[in-house]
Amino acid sequence: MAQIRHLYPGGNTCHGFYSFYDYMVSPQAARKIVLKGGPGVGKSTFMKKLGEDFAAAGFDIEYHWCSSDNESLDGVVIGHQQFCVLDGTSPHIVDPRFPGAVDEIINLGEFWNRTAIAKHRSEIINLSNNIARCFERAYCRLREAAMAYQEWQSYYEEARDMAAVNRNILALAQDFLPASAAPGNCRHLFAGAITPRGLVTRVESIIDSDYALYGIKGNPGSGSKTLFDHTLGILNLSSYYAEIYHNPFEPNEIDIIVLPDSKLVLLNISSPFNYMERLPSIKFKRLLDFDQFSSLSVLDLNNRLLDHARSRFNSGIDGAVSFINIAKQYHDELESYYVPAMDFESIRLARQEIFEELMQIMSNNLSKGVNIK
Question: How far is residue 209's CA from residue 205's CA, in Å, rounded to a whole number?
Answer without folding.
Answer: 10
